[in-house]
Amino acid sequence: MGENYSLKSYEDRKVQMNEIMQQLENGVRQMFTSENYIKYLEAYSKFYNYSISNAILILMQCPIATYVASFKDWNTKFHRIVKKGEHGIKILVPTPKKYIQDKEYIEDDGSVKIEQTESKKLFFKPGYVFDVTQTTGDELPTLTKNLEYDSQKLNKLLNLIFSTSELPILYDYFLKENDPNGYYRLDKKEIYLKPTLSSLHKLKTIAHEFSHYYQDIKYFDTTKNFNHQTKEVVAESTAFCVLQMLANEFQTQQLSSSEYSFGYIAGWSSKTLKELKQTLELISKISIIIYSWFSELFKLV
Fold first, then answer.
1. How far is the C-alpha of 99 from the C-alpha of 42, rounded, in Å?
2. Whole-prediction pTM value?
């Protein structure tokens, strides 16, 4: 039987959510002034921004993809090489072509004059990119620090989450140290976690990936035109809010994910935080859904 908790009222939670969102914004803003951020920008400004169509193609073929570049770019820009035996991720490469066309004009005297005009047409050809997990070489700078907190209570909570989840939550034992901590399979509607994570980081990652799921299913009309970076800002902001709400509700301050979330959001968001500000309502809605589920289970542990 779980402990007895004095749960907060709806109005208290509303005030609390506003405070959490302000804490999140302040934390991310401070991250932009850190020394690591300059190094981070220098590296990641070299990555190409892919279209929504190519982003979908990439994630369908490699759900754990985070940063992709061509074979040549990995070598020349980042001093990394693609591992032997890795298969490229197929994308559509825009290829503009110029055409010279003859155009006939009838002069006033009835003679025919021919002028050449230049026109452009955009074609697409298949190309290949590779995710950072398919490469080896110089380390890329990071803004995040993995969460290391473990407890018996959190492990019990995770077991309950696994058993009550509307999506299968599975471990991907092929994820290595520098691979993503988890991912959501859009095609299979499954969530995968890195098994070596601490119990706190597993909890945060589940909240993050469920946010992707709800963005895709429940709030698709809102998110259908979001780019990849905005979806990532929403997902990690949701994870931070859920853990902070649990920490406040059950007086368990170790549940904070600020050491990871602030840097992660800064990595995906612009310095004006437009992605965060434009999605505050959506973040709040998804956070409450996940928090309501987690908090009911937390009472039982």
1. 38
2. 0.69
